[in-house]
Design goal:
- By secondary structure, this protein is an alpha/beta fold.
- The protein folds into three domains: about 5-75 and about 115-195, Rossmann fold; about 80-115, no CATH class; about 200-295.
- The protein has helices spanning about 5-15, 20-35, 45-55, 75, 80-90, 115-125, 140-150, 185, 200-210, 215-230, 240-250, 260-265, 265-270, 275-285, 285-295, and strands at about 35-40, 60-65, 80, 115, 130-135, 155, 160-165, 170-175, 190-195.
- The chain has 15 helices and nine strands.
């Protein structure tokens, strides 16, 4: 199904994904050109969610390859079911009369093939969304292995030959920027960089994702998280997921605004390690954060009550 930019924008909105024009247009171009979409940015800014949203938009299967150090072709593409093959060999060594017979020719048939994500995407009956998540965690040799798939959407199996994709999948690759990706990989993709959202955009996300939250609290949460990211040097900056968890936690505590007490009680929702909690308390603190929220700088606070 071909979508216009306007239709794709509405589809993202219907899925609850708050996307700016650059994100929608880049996704549109990747779909139109049938090229992989490479989404790079810090953890927790919505990179993986783009693939999930596209799978929902096109009502198709999301096939996910989670990358990690040491990932090889067998785990990504296919493996032969060696145990099942061995059993077949043992059973076929002697026929009913006790005479030796050769192993059946179909030992490398589909019956013994274990599909991994890449082959599953190539052989899918309906155009799938293939998510190659955190590609920066694998080595350059694995990147080179991906070139054939990302360029020609085909894979080579020695026992079978070359298999071309039944339908060119929608491919989304994500990277946290832990290492520089190869030029060969980048050439094959349409590139999108996602950064942490502005307070205005994060406010829209909170409003869309946290039912029952008041206007004042949603404004203050968005403003506070943006200030924390900008003000502090942290091991892990709060992601959008942590923002939403914080907002939901505050709603569950019946908070209608941020106070030094509520901030102090919920730090473990925003931060995920002791060093960052200590850094917040030493270099900013709940009192100063709430003081900033009560000031006049930052995003507009119209409608606060």
């Amino acid at each position: 199904m071909e979508l216009t930019i306007e239709q794709l924008t509405r589809a993202f909105e219907q899925q609850g994904y708050i996307a700016d024009q650059e994100t929608v247009v880049t996704a549109y171009l990747a779909l139109t050109l049938q090229k992989p979409l490479l989404v790079e940015g810090p953890p927790g800014v919505g990179k993986t969610e783009i693939a999930k949203v596209l799978a929902n938009i096109f009502d198709t299967e999301l096939i996910r390859l989670q990358c990690y150090e040491g990932l090889d072709e067998n785990k990504a593409l296919y493996e032969w079911n060696y145990q099942k093959q061995l059993i077949k060999i043992q059973l076929s060594q002697v026929n009913r009369e006790g005479e030796c017979q050769t192993v059946e020719e179909g030992l490398f048939s589909a019956e013994y093939l274990l599909e991994r994500p890449l082959l599953k995407a190539i052989r899918a009956e309906k155009r799938p969304v293939l998510l190659i998540d955190e590609i920066d965690k694998v080595d350059q040799e694995f990147e080179a292995f991906l070139f054939e798939i990302l360029s020609d959407f085909q894979v080579s199996i020695p026992e079978w030959g070359t298999l071309k994709a039944r339908h060119i999948p929608v491919v989304v690759l994500t990277s946290n920027g832990e290492r520089e990706l190869s030029d060969g990989l980048k050439r094959r993709c349409v590139y999108l960089y996602l950064d942490f959202p502005t307070p205005e955009k994060e406010l829209r996300i909170i409003t869309a994702k946290v039912p029952g939250i008041g206007r004042r609290l949603s404004l203050e949460v968005a403003k506070a998280v943006g200030y924390i990211r900008d003000k502090l040097e942290l091991r892990k900056k709060p992601s959008i997921a942590e923002t939403l968890d914080w907002a939901r936690a505050l709603v569950s505590l019946d908070a209608d605004r941020l106070t030094p007490e509520t901030v102090n009680l919920t730090l473990n929702i925003i931060f995920k390690n002791k060093d960052d909690i200590d850094s917040f308390r030493q270099n900013l603190g709940p009192q100063e954060l709430v003081g900033f929220l009560n000031g006049t700088s930052g995003i507009a606070t119209g409608g606060r009550g």
